[in-house]
Amino acid sequence: MLLKVPSVDWTDQIVYVVDDDESLSDFDDEPDFSEYMWMENEEEFDKNELQRLEEEEIMQECFEAMIEDELEEQINEWEKAKTEEQNTALSALPKSQCNIEKSVLNPMADEFVPLCHQMDFIAS
């Protein structure tokens, strides 16, 4: 079926082709506005949506706080294990290696640089 629709300047006409399966009675039926029924109670809908968004934001904040707490707990456990490991390593050393009081080394001395490294530095 062909339908002719006038154009803006009325001199040309636009032709629409309509399938025979579609009947003109489809255009006569009342349109389906069920999709827009939420607008009937717009204030209540807005209130519910704002409440839902606030709850989602609170849940997100709680989730982030939970992750942060878990990370802090893991860091504390790691630091505790590291400290215990260092204490164990220090206690395993013989006492003669740990005695700094009898050391003859100068703690204020410059860092030792082998002579071959000094020559490379001077050459470049």
Give me a quick take on this structure.
The protein has 124 residues and is mainly α.
Describe this structure in words.
The chain has four helices and two strands. The protein has 124 residues and is mostly helical. The mean pLDDT is 76.
Protein topology:
Elements: E1 2-6, E2 13-17, H1 25-28, H2 42-92, H3 95-98, H4 115-123
Antiparallel strand pairs: 1-2
GO molecular function: mRNA regulatory element binding translation repressor activity
GO cellular component, one term: cytoplasm
Family: Belongs to the PAIP2 family.
Low-confidence stretches: none
Total of domains: 1
**In sequence order, what are the helices and strands, one letter per element?**
EEHHHH
Shape: elongated
N/C terminus separation: 92 Å
| Broad structural category | mainly alpha
Biggest sheet: strands side by side, in what order? 1-2
CA radius of gyration is 42 Å
Helix run count: 4
- Strand percentage: 5-15%
Number of strands: 2
| Amount of helix | 40-55%
What would the average pLDDT be, to the nearest integer? 76
Main sheet, how many strands, which sense, barrel? 2 strands, antiparallel
Q: What distinguishing features does this structure have?
A:
4 helices, 124 residues, single chain, 2 strands
